[in-house]
Amino acid sequence: MDENSPIFAIATAAELAGLHPQTLRQYDRLGLVSPTRTAGKSRRYSMRDVVQLREIAKLSAEGVSLEGIGRILALENEVASLSSRVRELEHALANEMLKSPGRRVFAAGSQGDVVPLKSGTRAQRRTELVVWRPFQR
C-alpha cells in the first residue's frame, strides 16, 4: 500500500486532517483535493490527500485565500510530478550507461541536435562558412 491508495472514508479523513467532513466536501467541489470515488460514488481519501488537507488547513489559518491555496497545491503537484519524471530519466540513463560501458562520443548535428557517434569514428567535416558577429546592433 502506498500513499496514493484510496483507503479513508470522508469521516476518517476529516478526523485525521482535523477538519469537518463538510469542509472536505467543499474542498472537493473547489478542486483543492479530489478524492477517488467508489462504485457507489462515495469519496475515498488517500494518505497523500490527508496530508494535502492538513496543508490547506495550515495555509488557510495563515490567511492564504482558497484561490491562492489552489495555486500553491497545483505548483507543488507539478514539482512532484517533474521530480518523479527526473528520477525516471535518471534511472533510464543509469541503465543505458550500464548497457554500454566505456566512453560515449557525441557531435553536433547540422540542425544543432546532438548526434551519438560510435567509438573510434570521426564527425563528418563541413565546409560551410559561419560568420560570427558578437557586437552587431
Automatic annotation (TrEMBL):
It comes from the Bacteria. Keywords: DNA-binding. The keyword NAD does not apply. GO terms for molecular function: DNA binding; DNA-binding transcription factor activity. InterPro entries: DNA-bd_dom_put_sf (IPR009061), MerR-type_HTH_dom (IPR000551), MerR_fam (IPR047057). Residues 10-75 form the HTH merR-type domain. Gene3D superfamilies: 1.10.1660.10. PANTHER family: HTH-TYPE TRANSCRIPTIONAL REGULATOR YFMP (PTHR30204:SF58), REDOX-CYCLING DRUG-SENSING TRANSCRIPTIONAL ACTIVATOR SOXR (PTHR30204). This is Transcriptional regulator. It comes from Mycetocola zhujimingii.
